[in-house]
Specification:
- The structure is a single chain.
- The chain is mainly alpha-helical and about 40 residues long.
- It has one domain.
- It is built from one helix and no strands.
- The longest helix is centred in the C-terminal third of the chain and has 19 residues, at about 20-40.
- The chain is elongated.
- It starts with 20 loop residues before the first helix and ends with a helix.
């Protein structure tokens, strides 16, 4: 499991990918991780 700290965002930033670049990065990171997990 990876840990990434997204400095400068609120704790509920994750669902704000349309307007917050760090949230979009976090959402993509999770999506990629899920794709990898289900591909195995």
């Amino acid at each position: 499991m990876d840990y990434v700290n997204y400095d400068g965002v609120t704790r509920d930033f994750f669902g704000m990918g349309a307007v917050v670049d760090k949230a979009k990065q976090a959402e993509q990171r999770v999506a990629d991780g899920l794709k990898d997990a289900f591909a195995k």
